[in-house]
Amino acid sequence: MVTLKKPYVITRGKVIFDYSHIYCETPEKLLKSDLFLEIVERFIERIASRGSSLFAFLKDKSPSVERNRMAAYLTTVFRLLSSYTAEEISAMNKEYDPILREKEKLFEIIEELYNYWRRFERFIYMEAPQRSKYAKQSIHHAQFIKSNEEFKNLVLHVYRRISENLIGKNPRVYRQLPAGANMGMLLEKAAWNCPDRYAVLRDIPFIRLTLIEPPVILYPTMNKRKGKFEEIPDIQQEMLTLNPEEWYCYPAKVGDLTAFIYFHQDFSSLALSMCNLFEIADYEDIEARSPEIVLVFGLHTQLPGDTVFYEDKTNNMLVGLVRHTEEVDYFGYFKKMTLTLHNIAMLKRDRLPLHGAMVCIKLKDGGSANVVIIGDSGAGKSETIEALRMLADEHICEMTIIFDDMGSLGTDAEGMVKGYGTEIGAFVRLDDLQSGYAYEEIDRSIFMNPDKTNARLIMPITRYHHIVKGYRVDMFLYANNYEQVNDDVPAIEFFTSPGEAISTFRSAARLAKGTTDEKGLVHTYFANPFGAPQRKEEHERIAKQYFDRMFKAGVKVGQIRTRLGIGGFEQTGPKAASMELFKEIRKSCRR
User: Fold this and answer.
1) Does CATH number 3.40.449 belong to domain 187-348?
2) Nearest 5°: phi and psi at 73?
3) DSSP letters along 221-289, please?
4) For 487, left (φ over 0), alpha (ψ -120 to 50), or beta?
5) Domain ranges of the chain
6) d(CA 17, CA 11)
7) In this predicted structure, what is the pLDDT of residue 365?
8) To which H or E segment does residue 331 belong?
9) CA–CA distance, 113 with 100 (Å, rounded to integer)
10) What confidence tens digit (pLDDT) does each residue in 222-243 have?
């Protein structure tokens, strides 16, 4: 017997529903849906368990209604209120007169139920029919977007209609709150070149379109990363045991690599947040193709660690596995595991992975310079670039972000060193950014734990064609966040030899800022725990090649003291460093 997949699931504060199976175009259908009834049931259980006066009111005004029928009774009241006023209902049926007479108390229940629904992280999805190679999907995109908009408007309409029919008057203020889905995904199955050992992944649908309804504010369990990504010698078949109906795949372009990021539905909010960070791969990158990276996030199986990876040399893929645990309920695990695998792939291509930021700056007087700032989490690289954007606005006509966190160095056909990016977005700390530093796209951002230390937002900051184009490097700096600046210690200091430079970059000292579980002055190999330490011998060889090339080509290599780790200098440190950087850019820019 075939078991039909349930059209919705409520799990870990999330509601994930297939709108094509519970499509509601009228208030009546919405209020008669199984999803609405279950939300009401859960709401009643919640207020009952808390000993709320609202539950006492419900019991008092419906004494003949059994506890297990209370949700159905309240739903009937809402269905009547969606069509008639309280007075009209009482005139038709005196059964509802006791609860309708206490208008303010019933209105409190309506408000609390509405807020209860909105506190869920809400995800809508639809599955498009599998297409042929040349089929167009624009019609499915349009239908999906329209359906989400209609659902949002329907929920608002039902809430307002019920409230107005109860109270008997219209509100003076209308708040257009996101009442439908926070995020959505259009799904499609595609036949990719899947090796037999990963056959369990074949039937998991791919995300072909995402949508978000800003502002999206998420509250994952964790607000920092812990531990390391460990390499394992092989993947046992039992490690990949999963139920495909509970999984989805986000096909991402990570630089010029393709990554299939599979995730369990419990991590939907974090996974869909990747739409602000990684470009969604084209259908041509999926069908009959093999990705360079596969990440399986949320496995209930036994793994050697919470976050492990394996180099599948037979199939030329890097495979990451992440265990289903609250310890990894943090966006940094999605981002950094993916980028760790990217970095190892870059080393295999003789490219040098970088943990830092790169920006192309064009001045109003015609000069330009491309600057790379290297540093581990909390070193101040992004803060310095944003301070530069704000403070030197009168002199700068254009700033293009190539990467904000992870990139790589490569060479072109002439042997020139160029920088390449990985992400179209940024995972930015709010703690150290003044309001004036915020990126221009903040209204498109996804916020995470804004009330906690290491509060973050994910925002789009650049276009995909910029990160894969390749830009020559003019200045290459290490972000030093722990040393004071004085007459003898400048904000920017340049090295005189590749050996001197490599020594500082290899040591990569910084004061930890609470973005991970590290404390105090720490050292991270080349400021990059994501792939570099796992392939240290290979990394050393490639790093020497690139530092030699940069010095030979006249690239200015040094360190910039941001002072971000020193108390009291969280804003003034990057600001002062950005001013010195601007002076150096003006002195050395190409014209």
Assistant:
1) yes
2) -65, -45
3) S-SSB-S--EE-S---GGGG---GGGEEEEEEEETTEEEEEEEEGGGHHHHHGGGGTSEEPPGGGTTT-
4) alpha
5) 8-131+139-167, 187-348, 352-424+462-588
6) 11
7) 81
8) helix 331-348
9) 17
10) 988 888 899 999 999 999 999 9
